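Q: What would this chain look like folded?
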Amino acid sequence: MTDVRQMKAKVEAAIKRADPKTMTDTFYDRASDRLFVTIVKGSRKISVALRGKDFGNGGSEKLDHAIADGLRRLQQTPIG
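A: My prediction, written as structure tokens:
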């Protein structure tokens, strides 16, 4: 069983470490074992989906890469 609170804490900490001015919202879907993360900065918003196995052994590299990719996409999202 995946510890959802720990997954959320890891994701939110990684996002705040990368860009402290962002806000996040998370939703965990047990059926698909995915954590859906919405990242908001100003009027820009994107979503990232992470699998439960991304948090396993050695998963921090995958997690950091997914967050960095999401924040990069957030910067490229048009305002409005």
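The chain has one domain: 4-76.
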